[in-house]
Design a protein that fits this description.
The structure is a homotetramer of 354-residue chains. In chain A, 30% of the residues lie in helices and 22% in strands. Chain A is of the alpha/beta class and 354 residues long. In chain A, the strands form three sheets. Chain A has a six-stranded parallel β-sheet with strand order 3-2-1-4-5-6, sandwiched between helices. A six-stranded mixed β-sheet of chain A has the order 10-7-11-14-13-12. In chain A, strands 8-9 form a two-stranded antiparallel ribbon. In chain A, α1 crosses α12 and α6 packs across α12. Chains A and B meet through β7, β10, β11, α11 and β13 of A and β7, β10, β11, α11 and β13 of B.
Chain lengths: 354, 354, 354, 354
């Protein structure tokens, strides 16, 4: 089987490195181009990149020369983890040039014509692209029309995944979420050690707005080819804590009907959706793992569940103000970033968009 | 002026050490006895105690022999930070033997006849002791009748202090609080390093219940010599984070009337109460410090505000679910434990109970 | 192929858990018995053990009932990670009862009749057991005579592995080593978080003595069936640092002859020994990985090299006092403990001792 | 008494902030000018500086406008903590313009005409400036001739202070030092949290060379107005560890004559020098505090000894390779930087150079 050739925009950053690590040995994709917006252009990736993941940089990537993040690139689609200030224009340019763009950047997430996708939650939102798909089919996978598909912000993925089965089964009327987020979420060099050692920072720029806005789009209803945001209010307070990987969220939720904690537990534990049914390569067996120990989930013990693609829910109980509460944790650079985009691409492929 | 002679129960523990550090050079109290429930009895304190605070153990304490936590002790009042499993009986025994007991332990906090006191918040709750006071006055500070006064759990102090001016000015109808608590709150050895390095633990035994229960008692209304708990619901989710000292709480609050964020800010910043008016030795000039920077409060930068006796509030803004939100931080072993008890004792003295 | 049935003594501890994780799916061993010295006896392992490794406890171990660490146990050999205070007698009892004992405990390491083994370094020291082997062969793997084989202390393995190729090629005349050791080396609960957060502790009980003593035995010369300790002096200063896994050692070494840094680099990088030649299951392809970046090795990036069984050497340069220096890092609970013992057992099997 | 008016070059950085904090309420100096090499020029200091120390920025500094680090500045002397790439020229310019320059920067430390000063160790090295002093005296503290005085690199101060009494009493023949250094030593933002959380970095740029070079100059012998570096070799290996403040050094030392550990202890504990005899304001009562507990010094418990100006020595014992060893710890931004420079200025004042 021929693998699609993939370009990575923002390849030298934290998420770019995760893309490369997760795509090593991928059955459907092979990295053939790397691009970055910084001074590393023109150097071999092995020199340009200060590889910060455990283990070695895959050998076949080492010699790829870092290019500017502009079309054309020698690939069939691009993954993008460009910084927000350059992602908007660059991704638009690639889409116009006919490339499918699978982006982790925030620039286009709220665009009407761009799906904000979690394959387990809102695969139907791909309908936004249907005109695209039809055109591409006609052109026999030629450079017909490009498009952009985005995944949510790293903490939003985790929260929306946990809310999805509750919204489907009970309805959601209000959400209050408080996050404890890992330092890798800020990239590299990112958070200064003097800011986070023996400390907590109760602020992450734009994060609270992103959670409130993106969650409603993801859980919104498709109306024709438009997505109507979910109508319930969400309140988010975000904190950076001294954890390497793994975003935690303490969630209270007001449901649309009475429910026992055991029913919520069952809704989480039995959750399974399109990526599981389609057996997508990166899909975890269980999108939501439920732990019953009183002190779980914990970042260091649970972030790698399902290869970093499962979120883990615990501490499910009743709440005197909102009705229900629980804690959810997910790996922010896998399920919350590179892994999310790759799963999006796998769904696009399974559905005929690639 | 003669200083009251003080005994410390639980003197070798984390809070006991803070008592000793904070009482060095205190104008009204002098430590004359130390007691502990463990194997250290019979040894000089300098040997019995593994001193874990920065700086040296005060020289005058070094030679005091650790005694059993039973009356009689050579002192006029006792501060108690005994573990919960022994505090109940021991404190009752001291009170029956005529000692005023100023306790940081949880055993008697919810007793009807015991004030749960924050001097800035509910000094009127001392009325519960009025029969005591009258009796003691008659007996000319003799061993008339003892009594017990408690301070709240370490995170509750911080939360209740922040809620107090809001309750007074706007009324409070519901509170949702999510805590990020320091490791020193668990005592020594307390939290294992393997549990908290590169990690968060979303569980602190009994903490959520304590916050929900104690806050309502503190903000309750005095009816004769009874305290009726405040009627609003409180939801607490508690997390241990990798911070040495300083408990942080992310708070949403539903108020009894419409208010702008600026009004909440003003209510916090202008808050001043009995300890400030009485110029109590340990009282901070401002019980609540407001910081307007977007990324404050932070434990390492703000925990020592007001000598560790001020709490710091920041990030005051509107909230789409509850109406208002903010973040508050306080030093858990000073304002949240030893300093709280000492301030209680200073108020008792100023009000004639000692 | 039939797998040998293995019992684990000290199965509920930190190293015991590593044994279980590393033996899952092992081609030669299968865990059939678990024992512990604590209150967990009589409970199923799944209940008795607070599993602290990432990922789930292997399902097939969950139901094994924890037994007392006394013979008989239903197994062909035992791995031991008992605490030092009980290991001595228990291991002797198992050996007397005819079990091969492969121990990570310190009790018997310095016994004359017990090899202190690193398969890459001193496989010839197994000659100490030769009488054993012959007897066992005769009895057709029956319960002939048991024996004890030990692996070194967790930091000693790392240091001795790095010294081995230098000793072989250049001779070693003096070693000065300063360690920075991970918290997992102290077991669980082990190091209190209040002792190590924002801190270093320049003391690990008995560690400096163990390094100085054990390294000389490992690098000692076999004389008949006796091991004569290497004659060079070793100086060790040991520190606990705030790292989860991975012991680092800064090493200066005085060699027996002049050598360039490049020669040391080559001696490290080309090092290969019995476990590699025998293709033992747990043996890493390269026992010593050399990194040339100026800031490596680092615990978080390099501890998992070779599945945790390689040590990583960097910063090789000349030294104005001792002649040469470098930094070496290894995974303390894998290469430094459970993995070391398993590799020992694999060598014993390959050499006919099992 | 009139206070000398002080300008601070590099005022917005980590060490610059320490200068401001330590000079608040200083009896001899008052800050009248602040300068920085960055984009903050022209703004009030309160706006230009992201104050990162606990507590508030002193109010009287808030309104000072940040200037370029070029003469003239409205002050009698300047403290400099400029980055190395601009310090060289800027400090020379100030000295030429007649200002005494008391610098923490590395640019001029090894210049022949510049003392590299620790007031307790080599106050006699000020003789290098004697021509200066005489000229200044004549000009009645006018703008006669400026000069530059430097303090050592942050880890070198700590090491040299500990070696000083040994060199004086026993002679020193070789030193092997391994450091564990705090993140604040790298300034702000400095060390990325992703590089140091759950990690150690065995590399600090130029640090090993600085320790080896500067220590020999400090402990060198004055020959006329020249300093001859001490002749013994020093080997340094440097590591960054996850500690906020406090540099630790594990030291082995070969002495010039036989000595017992108890004699070293006594040499450390009784050490006292010019700053103590002159009762300089910033001088600690004891430059070296000796701790006899087996697990001290520790950064969090000992870095603030003597207001951050004492170093703490522990673990003094014999060493099988070099003869003796111990561990020493000091506060890197107080004794190792801003406090060092201020003590230098106090000595200059006491000796008539200011």
């Amino acid at each position: 089987m021929t693998r699609l050739r993939v370009g990575i925009l923002g390849a030298t950053g934290t998420v770019g490195q995760r893309f490369i690590a997760l795509l090593a040995d991928h059955p459907q994709f092979v990295v053939t181009a790397v691009a970055a917006s910084d001074r590393s252009q023109g150097k071999p990736y092995g020199e340009a990149c200060a590889w910060r993941l455990a283990g070695d940089l895959p050998a076949e990537i080492r010699a790829l020369v870092v290019q500017a993040p502009e079309p054309p690139l020698d690939c069939d689609l691009v993954f993008s983890s460009l910084p927000a200030d350059v992602a908007g224009e660059a991704e638009t340019a690639f889409a116009r040039a006919g490339y499918p763009v699978v982006s982790n950047s925030s620039s286009h997430r709220m665009d009407d014509a761009v799906p904000l996708l979690i394959p387990e939650v809102n695969p139907d939102h791909l309908a936004v692209l249907d005109a695209c798909r039809d055109a591409r089919k006609e052109s026999a996978r030629g450079r017909g029309r490009g498009f952009i598909v985005t995944n949510p912000n790293c903490s939003t993925v985790v929260i929306a995944l946990a809310l999805a089965p509750l919204a489907a089964r009970f309805g959601v009327e209000a959400v209050v979420v408080t996050t404890l987020q890992a330092i890798s979420g800020a990239g590299y060099p990112g958070v200064a050690s003097l800011d986070i050692t023996d400390n907590v920072v109760p602020f992450i720029a734009n994060e609270e707005e992103k959670i409130e806005r993106e969650t409603r789009k993801i859980l919104g209803r498709l109306n024709g080819s438009n997505v109507e945001p979910a109508p319930f209010p969400i309140s988010a307070q975000c904190h950076r804590v001294n954890v390497v990987d793994g975003h935690m969220a303490a969630v209270r939720v007001k449901l649309g009907r009475r429910a026992e904690s055991a029913e919520l537990r069952e809704a989480f534990a039995s959750f399974s959706a399109a990526p599981q049914h389609l057996r997508l390569h990166t899909a975890p067996a269980r999108p939501i793992v439920v732990r019953d120990e009183p002190d779980r989930p914990q970042p260091r013990l649970d972030r790698d569940a399902g290869g970093g693609m499962s979120v883990t829910v615990g501490r499910i109980t009743s709440d005197s103000v909102l009705g229900h509460r629980f804690v959810v944790l997910g790996h922010n650079t896998i399920r919350g970033a590179a892994g999310a985009a790759i799963l999006n691409a796998e769904l696009l492929m399974a559905q005929g968009y690639l």
